[in-house]
Amino acid sequence: MKTRDLTPLIGSEVMIDRADLLEGRHASDLRKLLVARGVLVFRDLDIDRGEQRTITASLGTIQTDGTGEELQQVTVDEQVSPEYAAYFASTLFWHMDGHHDQTVPCFGGSFRPVRLAHEGGETEFLNAYAAYEGLDEADRHLVDRLHVFHTATTSGLSANPRASDEQIAGWRRRPPARQPLVWQHATGLKSLMLGVAVAWVEGMHPADSYDLLCRLRCHMNQPRYVYRHAWRADDLVIWNNTGTLHRARPFDPASGRLLHRFTLVGEEPIRAPDAAARQQA
Fold this sequence. Notes:
- InterPro entries: TauD-like_sf (IPR042098), TauD/TfdA-like (IPR003819), TfdA_dioxygenase (IPR051178).
- It comes from Novosphingobium anseongense.
- By secondary structure, the chain is an alpha+beta fold.
- The protein is 29% helix and 24% strand.
- Strands 1-2-3-13-5-15-4 form a seven-stranded mixed beta sheet. It has a three-stranded antiparallel beta sheet with strand order 12-6-14.
- The model has no long low-confidence stretch (mean pLDDT 94).
């Protein structure tokens, strides 16, 4: 197995024998690399849906939906996947899957293209560990102490600013979810959890909350923290959801863009930075 860094801070291309990959011979090393680099890219890997599942399952437990289905079809086509198509617009903004109102987000998963857009449709990944470490000491001390509220209305209006009263009422029926702004992981590393659904900072004046969130988002959007994956046929991308944010880039909805995705069950609960450690800092 050989690897090549795609950017200094996030993303590695993996060159590996196809049989070794399917048999999981390097699964332990790949999982460590996934945590360290956030995104693993395999090029020219001619595999089918079942083989994609096998590779993904070598890194953890496959997650199912409420019906027991494992495969998720990533598309805006309501005929193919009506549930995913209904909220696809929000995935064009930075987000971390499953953390809006969950305590244990999914660990990550894999994407494999079935049909590609003629233009656009790239997937971007943001290193949330590096974004936190890139803050100055005063800002790290500040954000370690903060909790924020995530709302469906905030993400919904970002994706659809001309939403109807009925749509907005539907979003408002979902209660806000309180989460720490910083996740302190079992490894001791910390990551910024600042996706599109974050609406306000708890206990802060709305004007100051707005300014802080804007400033942090501008900081996170620096190109050095981001890897943009331009899809090609026979790609496989595996990402670590707990240490990155991701988003799709715009594309023509009529292009038929379709990715197959398998998701890995979460293993670690979200935890705010330790209070004692903050006091010592």
